[in-house]
Amino acid sequence: MINEKKFVETVISSSWIFTANSDDQLLENHCLVIDGGVIVDIVESDSVFNIYQANEVYQLTDQLLIPGLVNAHTHLAMSLLKGYADDMDLSVWLNKHIWPAEKSLVSPEFVSDGSRLAMAEMLKGGITTFNDMYFYPQATAEVSEEVGMRANIGLVVLDFPTVYASDSQDYLNKGLNFRDTWRDNSLITTSIAPHAPYSVSDESFCMIGTYANQLQMTIHTHLHETEAEILESLKKFNMTPIQRLDKLGILGPNVSAAHCVHLCATDINILEKNQVNVIHNPSSNMKLGSGLANIKALCEKGVNIGLGSDSSASNNRLDIITEIRSTLLLHKGKNQDAELLKPLDAIKMATINSAKAIGLDGKIGSIEIGKRADITAINLNSIECQPCFDPLSTFVYSADKNSVSHVWVDGVIKVKKNLLVNIDEDKLLHNAKLWQTKIRKI
Questions:
Q1: Is the CB of residue 16 less than 8 Å from the CB of residue 60?
Q2: What are the DSSP E strand ranges found in 68-187?
Q3: What is the per-residue pLDDT across 289-328, written as a single tens digit (0 to 9) for each?
Q4: Distance between CA atoms of 19 and 47, rounded to whole angstroms?
């Protein structure tokens, strides 16, 4: 008796698959079998159609499949402020330009339009998940649901009033109401997002820690981004921000700390002890002149390191492939050690490590049976990428975001042959120019 073939939604055949699993498997001439948004099988290409019949089949010769990239630190709506205040240090940039502009501009419409622009850019660059921190989370979530992108959305907390909320309790109340509304959406998760130790008091941090523990939520914050931040903390609290948060009992494996540029040995030991996740943002840190994180020391301590772009206002691009390459080159150069990091190390920072940092490594971040089908395809059949002796090395050192050919989120195609499937790019560009005109007038 001949066995009947199993019907599935999608089969993707490619020359290489980097799984980013615990064995760092790089498979040649295999297929991903996807059904119901889940990876249900990984099969050799020669035998897949003896077992399965699919509604959609993708034959991606000379292409590398990787887990969908995770942007672990973003402020999406700030894409509308891209290029608004360039070439300034963080304090001047934030206090003299960005915060005043936001006071005039920020609204649900601003967040919605900025987030849509950002999501389009990220999807075209192979990013399938983002970890955001901004006002009006409802607006971001609505666009994310419309676009079909996976999001971990931060419930921002500050101690001073903005157009969004009046004080820390008001920020939390609004954020937690948002969480309750969206908690059953399969693509949306939430974290509590205290902006930074310099903008959030001890009392507010303790309240945040209580909520995070009771609701089993992750925490997303800025930490040790500049030397000035640390000097201010030493003057006010007689300890660094990391030491202060450790004393308050805030730090733990549920915390993702963006930047961590300036760290003493004690700070690094505290991060290791508490299993804090560090989110490296090399491009933003360089552009703002903030410095460069000691990734070598963090790696030696076994600290989980993810990658983020930060906002378009401080980076000018939401491009994790650039962050992967920059991470490798910067830290090899800084440490005068060509063997410090390998391509697969940096790719894992942008996939499984970032997924772990936001509490989603059980669902995404690696290509494994049973995980959600968030997949990015990298075309290595180009002048820039040939000849190709090692697909991971070629991807990291030779490819760029224009090499992204296809993207799937939850098994649904979002980018096909380099084009967005369900976003009108012309309409998006027109809207961005309308905002440019409006912003110029403030």
A1: no
A2: 69-74, 127-134, 150-157
A3: 999 999 999 999 999 999 999 999 999 999 999 999 999 9
A4: 20
pTM here is: 0.97
Angle at 318 between CA 316 and CA 324, to 5 degrees: 110
Burial (CB < 10 A; 0-12, 13-18, 19+), residue 9, is middle
- Residue 115 three-state SS: helix
Amino acid at site 158: L
- Partnered with residue 277 across adjacent β-strands are 256
Instruction: Report whether the peptide linkage leading into residue 387 is cis, meaning its omega lies within 30 degrees of zero.
Output: yes
- 88-92, 158-162, 187-191: lowest mean pLDDT where? 88-92
Longest CA–CA separation in the chain, Å = 80
CA 49, chain centre distance (Å): 35
DSSP 98-120: IHHHHHHH-SHHHHHHHHHHHHH
Residue 407: alpha-carbon gap to chain centroid: 15
- Which residue, 6, 28, 34, is CA-closest to 15? 28
**pLDDT reported for residue 90:** 85
Task: Yes or no: say if 354 and 70 are a contact pair by the CB < 8 Å rule.
Answer: yes
Distance CA 311, CA 321 (A): 15
Q: How many residues does the chain have?
A: 442
Question: Taking a C-beta distance cutoff of 8 angstroms, is the pair 245, 208 a contact?
Answer: no
Cα within 13 Å of Cα(131), Cβ side: 36
pLDDT in tens, 218-264: 999 999 999 999 999 999 999 999 999 999 999 999 999 999 999 99
Q: Are 136 and 114 in contact (CB under 8 A)?
A: no
> Percentage of residues in the chain with pLDDT exceeding 70?
99
Which amino acid, residue 333?
A: G
